[in-house]
Amino acid sequence: MFKRRRPAVQIKTAEQVELMRAAGLLVGRTLELLRASVRPGISTLDLDTVAEQHIRDHGGVPSFKGYHGFTGTICASVNEEIVHGIPNGGKVLRDGDVISIDCGAIVEGWHGDAAVTVPVGEITPELRTLLDVTETSLWHGLAAGRAGARMTDMSHAIETYVRSQGPYGIVEGYGGHGIGTEMHMDPLIPNHGAPGHGPVLEPGMCFAVEPMVNLGTKDTVELDDGWTVVTGDGRYSAHFEHTFAVTPDGPRVLTALDEGREWFAKLGITASA
User: Fold this and answer.
1) Could you tell me the pTM of the whole model?
2) How does pLDDT run across 214-249, given as a tens digit for each residue?
3) How far apart are CA 257 and CA 91, in angstroms?
């Protein structure tokens, strides 16, 4: 009987991590531009156009466009749509909506990948709390991504924080992943589970961590378009993501403009220098 080997995790050199930082900065700045562009009356296709123009104007290539036939530069998922929403000129944002914008870019062959969920106009306090809980859970997951930890330590940190905040649905079957010369690489990083499992984290490993949290059930349905994933009960969802590198000094968040220092300071954690 043969023991099944875990897939190898790509290790980057310091120079390669810097190239990933360039891709990550481009993604981070694109998301800031998109966040500022979100308003009632704009379509998800309008946002997609803004993203593609910005990425290409700054020397990058959209990661998502053409990926397994996907037609957009961003995934634009509105309200009950969790992930992989296809940009559409007929999908116009309204006051009170929330939109998850997932964006990826390639610079010199290296990928960055991140997502934010943005309120459209005024949203309810319940939705505001959902966004806050999901984003904070992301940072708890990132903070657990230290050299010597195990992969599911990040999963457990995300789940533990979300469970402490209320009866939210943590999406299963979708999650974070390795990233580098490809957008999606081994391993898959779930947003739930026991700690202490999976590969030991080593400097030079890079991962995208991305919790998806629903107001109601964790159940999901994939629509007939073959991409869009929605909540099983029609209630709203939130999604946040960052790409980070494991370093000897702590996690370095490659898609955050400040590399995560502000958020890690809130959590009482020292980020990588």
Assistant:
1) 0.95
2) 999 999 999 999 999 999 999 999 999 999 999 999
3) 29
